[in-house]
Write a structure and sequence with these properties.
globular
Length: 116
């Protein structure tokens, strides 16, 4: 299984579409489920998730997508995915290089042993 961090709505849709068949863990970095301006009917069907997936959601207190990230956490937990959500103080909506080690540590913990 691949382990890769991804960003924004794309990672949520990848989690829904492929689930654990391809990825053993994903990171949603300062993005959420649906983001801003997306309607639920425009997104993929959560019932497509075949197996639980490890998801790390990273957002900031000043991120415009904070509510969307909270929505993603709730939605994925409701379909038995394991979700870790970190909300950074005084951070907005951008890519944080200083969090890359945390992201890789998370996905490495969930790497399938045969893929190491």
């Amino acid at each position: 299984m691949l382990v890769i961090p991804m960003v924004v709505l794309f990672s949520s849709n990848v989690a829904i579409h492929y689930g654990e068949r391809v990825f053993s863990a994903i990171c949603n970095h300062c993005g959420g489920y649906g983001g801003l301006g997306y309607k639920d009917e425009e997104l993929l069907n959560l019932n497509m998730i075949k197996k639980s997936l490890q998801i790390y959601i990273l957002t900031g207190m000043r991120d415009n997508y904070l509510q969307s990230c909270a929505k993603a956490k709730k939605i994925f937990e409701n379909v038995a995915c394991s979700v870790t959500m970190e909300i950074m103080n005084n951070r907005g909506h951008r890519y944080y290089v200083d969090k890359e080690t945390d992201i890789w540590n998370f996905v490495s913990l969930h790497q399938i042993k045969d893929d190491q």
